[in-house]
Design a protein that fits this description.
Chain lengths: 273, 273
């Protein structure tokens, strides 16, 4: 009888619990969440077997699936009283590790590169991690056996497990995830405020899709990684200024800008397949 | 025997010809393109029956599916010698109409809100316009019979035909299409230049999808509508500055920014369905 304590019954936590149970990794899941509605849905859907008000009892592993700003406190609360591994699913790793000085040896920092614009237990899917990367950022203090155990859970639910340093992870995701979210938020906020939109194309829908996100989750992510996102934002603003000037000039300078961007897109597509 | 002259055998022109033929609107399509490879593909695929070097012969209608900057000259060339309607598919309407002073009465300015990141005759699809909006921006000089005939072609291929003024069209698309493209171009150009990307999520893929575009088409669009895009770009840059500052502060100011954006996204989704 393998038991998982799930702290945070949102999309990611519930998808992990559902998938891990389906793969036989855990037989029993106990859920904790201050959001009573989410907790109730998770129980009604059979994603969790029981609810708890605070971490208690013995579990084989603990999944901390709460917004980035709340992770360190939860990990500190459970890591010392749990013999098994404790792992999180936060999108920023450095801030969590810094807040955990010292880092408990049984804590394995994780970030699954999967998600959805839908939230909560009702959106949970057993195939959410299938074929997606799972980044682990263990540090010097991290127990290797805990890393291996957590890696095995994620492999069981279909993820490709990759190890990186917290700094290289945060640097990369500042650019490929956090900045695009910031831009999509700023864009839709400005666009919609300006006027009602109709007759939009799929390009617009795709471009703003990531703005349909959880407010608490993204407030924490953006602030936690602000020092790495800021230089990328400044870089983007300079590029926008450059593209904007070229747009006004037209002709060759604009063509070169777009050509360069389209080439970059093609290079990305090729590397991505 | 109804005949269509198709000037420009790219994705949009070929999709229209293919769909209109499938619906019995035209029985014969003659194609013109200075891109001999595209023309050859269009013929090999049976999208066009014959190629021509210049507009000649009598056709029931002419579809001018060339980049925005080349539309006016082509329309001027064919409109006077063609008794049937002539229509374009350009993403900017005002610049074409301004360049056509006087506007031929049989010219109907059109913009189908459909596309793909794939280009050329090989990507042509008969269902490309199915359920999508087709915006017509006739002016005072435009012959009503031509508008009705062209509207009927687009309805036959599944589009929802909507009439707007050229100015309101260009104002709207500066925001919902041209600016997102400019941002996606600037973003991917900066992002890829900076470092090789791996482990990106679907959010990134969706966000940059529109950067996979035709260079000539988008060079023309952005320049033709630059005066309307520029104020929207400035607005976005101010919003980015505001969101960037809130990101650094964190707490309530950031939460309010994201809350507002997520609400705007929800409002858009509701209006969009």
């Amino acid at each position: 009888m393998k038991s998982l304590l799930l702290i945070g019954t949102g999309l990611i936590g519930c998808s992990f619990a559902k998938a891990a149970r389906a793969k036989g990794v855990f037989d029993r899941v106990v859920g904790i969440d201050h959001d009573r509605a989410a907790l109730g849905h998770a129980r009604d859907l059979g994603i969790i077997d029981a609810v708890a008000n605070a971490p208690c009892g013995d579990h084989d592993a603990v999944c901390v699936a709460v917004p980035v700003g709340a992770i360190a406190a939860k990990v500190r609360e459970v890591a010392s009283r749990c013999t098994g591994p404790v792992f999180d699913v936060g999108s920023v790793k450095g801030s969590v590790i810094d807040a955990l000085d010292p880092v408990p040896p049984n804590f394995v920092p994780c970030h699954p590169i999967a998600g959805s614009e839908h939230q909560g237990p009702l959106a949970a899917r057993t195939d959410l991690f299938e074929g997606h990367a799972l980044i682990m950022t263990p540090v010097a203090e991290t127990d290797r056996a805990a890393v291996d155990a957590v890696g095995a859970y994620w492999k069981a639910v279909g993820a490709r497990v990759v190890e990186r340093t917290p700094a290289s992870h945060d640097e990369c995701f500042a650019l490929v995830s956090h900045l695009p979210h910031l831009v999509a938020f700023a864009f839709i906020d400005t666009a919609i405020r300006a006027r009602p939109l109709d007759q939009v194309g799929n390009g617009f829908r795709d471009f703003v899709r990531i703005a349909g996100a959880d407010v608490d989750v993204w407030t924490d992510i953006l602030h936690a990684n602000a020092t790495r996102i800021r230089p990328r934002l400044d870089e983007l603003m300079r590029a926008l200024e450059r593209f904007g000037k070229a747009m006004e000039q037209g002709g060759e300078s604009l063509e070169q800008c777009i050509e360069s961007a389209v080439c970059a897109k093609r290079a990305f597509d090729e590397a991505d397949h």
